[in-house]
Amino acid sequence: MIYLVGWLLVYYYLAVRLLVRHRARLLALAVLLLLGGLAVFRGQVGTDTFAYEKAVFDPERMTGIEPGFQLIIFLLKSLVADPVFVIRAITAIFTLLMCWFVWQADDDELFFVMSFIIPIFFYSFSMNVLRMGLASAVFLIALQFDRKKQIHRAVLLAFMSFLFHYSMIFAILYLWLVDEKISGKYRVIGTFSLIVAVLLLVIMNEAYFATKFQNYALIEPPGMLSGLSRVILCVILLGGVWLSSLPRPEIHRLVLWTLLFMGVFWGVTRISYAGLRMLDLLVFVLAVAIMRAYGRMAQPVDRSVRASWLLAGVVGAAGVYRNMLQESFWSNSPWLPYHTVFDR
């Protein structure tokens, strides 16, 4: 029930914003801090929370983990001896990064994060996939720098996000592929270079990726309809873009590359749970690509795109809550029932 209250706060903010016709930044920050408090003071709640707590002081479990995340764990361990509070501190860092994004956001960015990112991803990024949460928060700040034409800072932060989750290399690749300013020759060279970098990473970190592959292999492959909710979110976002005023070549690139990766990742779900994670990432990076396209065109976001964010946010939040209800029967740190860290 408490998760529903969090979502209601988000939509209360959006309703107030609509009524007063003002971005209401302070109210957005207040909502974020309340959601952050819910996440920071949780007990063993959130699918991977238990696993992260066990890994903090277990060098074997930390082997191969992204270096940026390892560095943060190392620094926090030197300050806090309790792994529970080390993990809660990581959640606090993620919350503060999102607050920074909101504080620096223009009107379109603020609507984007509150109508789409927060409803779909906040609970997961702050209480479950923590590495992905940190990586995504850094990537969103990189988006802000890109929209402000501070390209060097944007590129640096984009690649820094890779240090918190290796899968962000796909996000970088996707944005590279849909960028109109990159000619065919350089697009091929860049794509080839990223693929080589990924292969080198896998070779250098073979033990870690072998373990991840085995872990996913132990999970029963999702059914044919698994991932359908993510596909629906992509279709909603593409529908908003299709009706927008963006140049048609820009729209066509977004549609074609998204449909290609969507088909590949949905196919992967038939044999591995990893496909669902990649579909989640595709939903995230597609939305970022849309925001970036408007930044390059230096024009405000169209109503059709805003409507698609709002609709996708509602649909995505419903899917997240459905997954919470289903997961409560098998996880070591289920989403439900919610309890605080003081109840342990």
Query: What is the count of helical runs?
Result: 16
Mean pLDDT value: 88
Radius of gyration: 19 Å
* Low-pLDDT sequence parts: none
Task: Annotate the secondary structure layout.
Elements: H1 2-20, H2 25-40, H3 49-55, H4 59-62, H5 67-77, H6 83-104, H7 107-127, H8 130-147, H9 151-161, H10 168-177, H11 184-204, H12 206-218, H13 228-242, H14 248-269, H15 274-297, H16 303-327
Helix pairs in contact: 1-2, 1-7, 2-6, 2-7, 3-6, 5-6, 6-7, 6-8, 7-8, 7-16, 8-9, 8-15, 10-11, 10-15, 13-14, 13-15, 13-16, 14-15
Description:
- The structure is a single chain.
- This protein is mainly α and 344 residues long.
- It has one domain.
- It contains 16 helices and no strands.
- α6 runs antiparallel to α7 and α13 runs antiparallel to α14.
- The longest helix has 25 residues.
- The radius of gyration is 19 Å and the shape is globular.
- The two termini are 20 Å apart.
Summarize the structure.
Helix content is 75%, strand content 0%.
Labels describing this entry:
344 residues, mainly alpha, single chain, 16 helices
